[in-house]
Amino acid sequence: MPLERSERAVTRTPAWELYRSFLAVVRHGTLSAAARELSLTQPTVGRHVDALERELGIALFTRSPSGLTPTGTALDLVPHAENMASAAEAFVRTASGQMEDEVGSIRLTASELVGIEVVIPMLADFRKAHPRIAIEVVLSTRAEDLLRREADIAVRLFRPTQASLLARRVGAIGIGLYAHPSYLEGRTKPRRLEDLQTHALVGFDSEVFLRRGERYALPTSRDDYALRCDSYLGQYAAVRNGFGIGVCLHAPARRDALVRVLPREFDVGFEAWLVMHEDLKTSRRVRLLYEFLAEQLADYAATDGRTRTAPTRKKEK
Fold first, then answer.
1. Residues 207 and 222: beta-carbon distance below 8 Å
2. What is the sign of the dihedral through the CA atoms of 112, 117, 119 and 124?
3. How do residues 43-53 score in pLDDT, each as one tens digit?
4. What is the value of pTM for the model shown?
5. Is 277 helix (H, G, I), strand (E, B) or coil?
6. Cα distance between residue 313 and residue 86, in whole Å
7. 3-state class (DSSP) for residue 68
8. In degrees, to the nearest 5, what angle opens at C-alpha 143 toward C-alphas 90 and 95?
9. Which stretches make up the HTH lysR-type domain (predicted)?
10. Is the pLDDT of residue 100 over 80?
């Protein structure tokens, strides 16, 4: 039977492994999937969830043949459990490197496209120089929180403002409009931004992301795009395979022999920043990767082909 909210206060802090299993079940919805993630048995995960409910005196899930659905209270607890998970992971990463300066792990985060096309290709040389340092890479459009130690180092395309972070500007990463030669074959190449309306455009599905294009005079209506995808890699795959015209990083576009479209009208650069928490400046292994990436990203930014920033669209009166 479902547990009712207990009138008594929780008198002791439940063990961390109970929260760990709780988070895994929330993420996956079933005990079996959570058990696979944690390398535990299904009964063990079930016992952890039951024990956490007993100790907290509340029901965390509703059970059904299809799985476990978190209650409203459980969803309220998720951010707190995630903070605990981040702290536990940071604890392990810090402890793993205490015996020797160049041994341990570092958690690095970047956006999906920048991470895959720019950052990860740089890491092989770092690995050769420091083979005992492991790197955990988080690719996400979500800005991992360095203050809560969700990551040790971040590559950001905006300037951080938190006082406790060390940030270094490493240049500007440029983007432009590109198309595959097979798409442009037999078509009139656009000469003005307005001409894009007659072409198959590749862009975002989310209205939030689409509205950001207004500052660069790009269409902002979902109906203007023939293919919509909130993944940068998905968009790039569509452009690379001849679906239409889309926004791409300069370097991979040149590598894949894409054709630049409207280079004078659309040439945008995003400031790239390398960021870490100031508490990590005494960690040799983190500092080694930070300095390595600062040099590599600066070289990349200096040669990626950006020339100037695109004009913004004037609002109609």
1. yes
2. positive
3. 899 899 898 88
4. 0.63
5. strand
6. 42
7. strand
8. 10
9. 20-71
10. no
Q: What are phi and psi of 108, to 5 degrees?
A: -115, 135
Q: What is the dihedral of CA 39, 40, 41, 42, to 10 degrees?
A: -90
Percentage of residues of the chain with pLDDT beyond 90: 39
165 vs 115, residue with greater confidence? 115
Q: Is the pLDDT of residue 93 over 60?
A: no
C-alpha–C-alpha distance, residues 289 and 44, integer Å: 39
pLDDT digits (tens, 9 = 90+) for 52-68: 888 888 889 988 888 88
Q: Which amino acid is at 101?
A: D
Residues in the chain: 317
Pick the CATH number of 173-268 from 1.10.10.60, 3.40.50.1970, 3.40.190.10, 3.30.470.30: 3.40.190.10
The terminus-to-terminus CA distance of the chain in angstroms comes to 64
The tally of CA atoms less than 13 A away on the side-chain side of residue 40 is 19
* Closest among 268, 252, 263 to 190, alpha carbons compared: 263
Cβ neighbors of 30 (< 8 A, separation 6 or more) are 67, 68
Helix 16-28, helix 31-38: angle, nearest 10: 120
Which of 3.40.50.300, 3.40.640.10, 3.40.50.720, 1.10.10.10 is the CATH number of 16-91?
1.10.10.10
